[in-house]
Amino acid sequence: MHPLLLQSLFPLLLITSFLSVNVELSLGQDNEQYANCGEDINCGGVGGITYPFWGVNRANYCGLPGFGVKCVDNTPMINMSNINYRILKMNSIASSVTVARQDYWKTICPLTYVNTNINFSLFSYTSEVTNLTFYYGCNTSVPGLTSSSQVCSTNKGNITVSYVTQSPPSDPVATGACKNGVIVPVFTTAVVALEANQMTIGEVVDGGSELDLEIDDDQCNRCVESGGKCGLNTTNGGFSCFCHDQAYATICNTTSLGRQGSRKELAVGIAVAVPSIIIIIFFTICITRKRILAFFKKDKRDDEFEFDVEARIRNYGSFTPKRYSYANVKKMTDSFKDKIGKGGYGTVYKGRLPDGLLVAVKVLSESKGNGEEFINEVASIGRTSHVNIVTLSGFCYERDKRALIYEFMPNGSLDNFIHKHGSEMTNCRLEWKTLSEIAVCIARGLEYLHRGCNTRILHFDIKPQNILLDKDFCPKISDFGLAKLCETKESIVSMIGARGTAGYIAPEVFSRSFGGVSHKSDVYSYGMLILEMVGARKNLDSGVSRTSEIFPNYVYKDLELHKAEHIFGDISEEEKEVARKMVLISLWCIQTIPSDRPSMTKVVEMLEGPLHSLQIAPKPFLFSPTIVAEDSVTTSQTI
Question: What does UniProt give as the signal peptide span (predicted)?
Answer without folding.
Answer: 1-20
